Amino acid sequence: MGRQRFSKGLIMLWIALSMVEYFHPGQVRGQDSLNVSMVWKSIYWQWTMDIAVQGNYVYIAAETTGVRIVDVSNPEEPEEIGYFDTIGHAWAIDVQNNFLYLAELEYGMRIIDITDPTEAFATSSLPLYEDITDIKVYQDYAYLANQDEGMIIVDISDPYLPDVVGRYGGYVCVRCLEVDYPYVYIEDWINNDDSNLQIIDVSDPTDPYLACNISLTSNIYDIDAQGDYVYITKEAYSFQIFNVSNILLPQSVYQGQITIYPYSLEIQGNILKIAGSYNGIYFYGVTQPSSPINLGTYNTVGSAGGVCTLNNLSYVADGWGGLRIIDVSNVSNPQEIGYYDPPGQVSRMTISNNIAYFIMGHDGFKIMDISNLQEPVELGSYSINGNNVNFPNYITVEGDRAYLLDWSYGLRIVDVSDLTAPALLGSVEIPGHMSAMAVRDSIAYVVAEDEGIFIYNTADPANIILLNHYSFSTNEYDIMLKDNYAFLTNYNNLMIFEIIEVSTLQLIGSCSIPGYPYDLDIKDNYCYVANCLEGISIVDISDYSEPYIYGAILSEENVYCLDIDNNYLLFSEGENGFRIFDITYPFYPWEIGYYNTPGHACAGMIYGNHVILPDEYYIEIFDCSQAISVENPFFDLSPLTFDLLPPYPNPFNQRLALEFTLPAAAEVKLAVYDVLGREIQVLGDGCWVLGKHSVVWEAEGVGSGVYFARLMVDGRWSMARKVVLLK
Asked: In angstroms, rounded to a whole number, what is the distance separating the alpha carbons of residues 358 and 329?
């Protein structure tokens, strides 16, 4: 499950042959950034994976967003007071005395000094280059579950110099374990249907050995042990209890089905707690382990993945629901008394008058003053009381109103005249799945990707009026307004509509886009389309009735989002960060910078000489002044001093005359290509003197259709003309 970061690969620029084109050969990127530096970063919580509690502090493993430390001295108002930013995924943790022991998945084990929880720091790391998925600590040893090569035993008597002293089962896939010294219980995963519960004697940590093996018909999720009993949760919606008083002959005393997905468990006294993902926590009485009794349940708001109890308070790592604190003094009626639910995934943003609005997962949006980019100030937030049904995914601002789209709900309009206390003005449910919108003079054009365009009058947010609805046969993704026109991307097209009296759309032109077009932006006579499978498509829209692909910037990654400001294009490549191009000359977009971000780059924006980026569980600000200072190689050149004149006649039947001019002697190739870019015939290839030249194409043996005549000069510049052959 570990995500690896890859350096930028070879990116090539291809240009469709229906336009003036210039070829940029691309670059191999062997570094994480070019001409861009990060100046500010804020980290939010990812999925909470594991939890430990000691004294007044709860420690949470939150995947790529590290270890989060929460003060629960007042459990009704928990407060995050520190964190440790990991390199890899914070997957599992254990705490002993003043140290936290972290299983960092692909980066091995890390030991963190938590003497001062507000200033946690690493004392050491043990890079094992193996996926470490669980960790338990007992006295001077840490026991690590390695899903590639068994169990690893580490001497931690000196937290600054941990040392591997023993291993068990180099062929065994171990995903979870539990220590009940002198034994360690591990899962030996065999396949998706079968596993073993193995009991390992670790009385000599340098020479662990198998004491007993128990075959199971399903995989194990978690293990806990107390006294003479071992408790396991299993994949097949069940849990099982073993009597291990005779370690060589363990006996199954109970196996039962459960209606929840039994992710993890905790045994404490006579109470067994099972964390059941989206079904919360189930409580069982195990005074008689052979006959567990269901005592009660508590359904958390998120996905319960880990539970740890201290002094009648159960602390739950609740997936996207953060930390939940449950009073379990009466397990038949457990009550949540506090929670810490930080903002989640940062997906989209917009900027209005030095104020940035960020969509935060299921929670709504956050408002920041970015007038000082070195120290942005959080002003307020708007919550929609998110759950796994709500998913806000688009935001725009007009005046004192923020328009928020919810993927599965519709449109909400929020008053942001007081940035510290945004308040809902009105909302409307819209069928389908929302993807984008544009707002002008209180008229909202909302795109539902499977329902079309809905046009609303929002002048009175308490009474939002549907003016019109346009349904299409394919999914729609983004919309942008320019003058009296609307530009829409759908499944494989860019569509251009004339807006007539606000609520009427009349289709006047369209252009097929290869791949899956999503986001779009416009500069001058060109529309730039984020194309999921192809990078960026550049469309000439000088004639709205006949738009055509002018060129493209290819990407090795899926591209969903872009932004244009002045002569600069920003687009995000997900796990590969973002890239910036100078598009002064659309025929030759020139890459001037990139940054491989720590998260999953989403819909960022150019803001002066900076880029502000939602990056999955981060908000980041980058200084791009060095990139913007990079001179485009065509800045002082006049590439149109050579010309490929309009062919004639066009359309033609058999013979086509082609003329071109050269300002100086040059290497020239003149050739004809079909619509797929295949070379049909070379009409001239060599050194030509300055002046005007004429060439005739005799189209013998070539079928009727659309072709392109392309003139390449000195291997750098080219121009193309579309011709139509009619026979």
From this structure: 40
Considering the domain boundaries, does residue 526 fall inside one?
yes
Last residue of a domain, one of 581, 600, 628: 628
Domain identity same for 323 and 364: no
| Helix count and strand count (H, E) for the chain | 1, 65
pTM: 0.74
Q: How confident is the model at residue 634 (pLDDT cuts 50, 70, 90)?
A: low
Which pLDDT tens digit goes with each residue over 520-568?
Answer: 999 999 999 998 877 898 899 999 998 988 778 888 888 989 999 999 9
- From 603, 628, 653, the end of a domain falls on 628
Q: Is residue 468 part of a domain?
A: yes
What is the rounded distance in angstroms from the CA atom of residue 674 to the CA atom of residue 260? 59
Question: In percent, how much of the chain has pLDDT > 70?
Answer: 92
Domain-embedded: residue 161: no
Statement to judge: residues 335 and 348 lie in one domain? no
To 5 degrees, how large is the angle CA 447–CA 451–CA 454?
45
Q: What are the distances in angstroms from CA 62 to CA 292, 301, 328, 420, 462?
A: 32, 17, 24, 28, 40
Distance CA 593, CA 583 (A): 13
Number of domains in the chain: 3
Query: In the structure, what pLDDT confidence band is assigned to residue 13 with cuts at 50, 70 and 90?
Result: very low
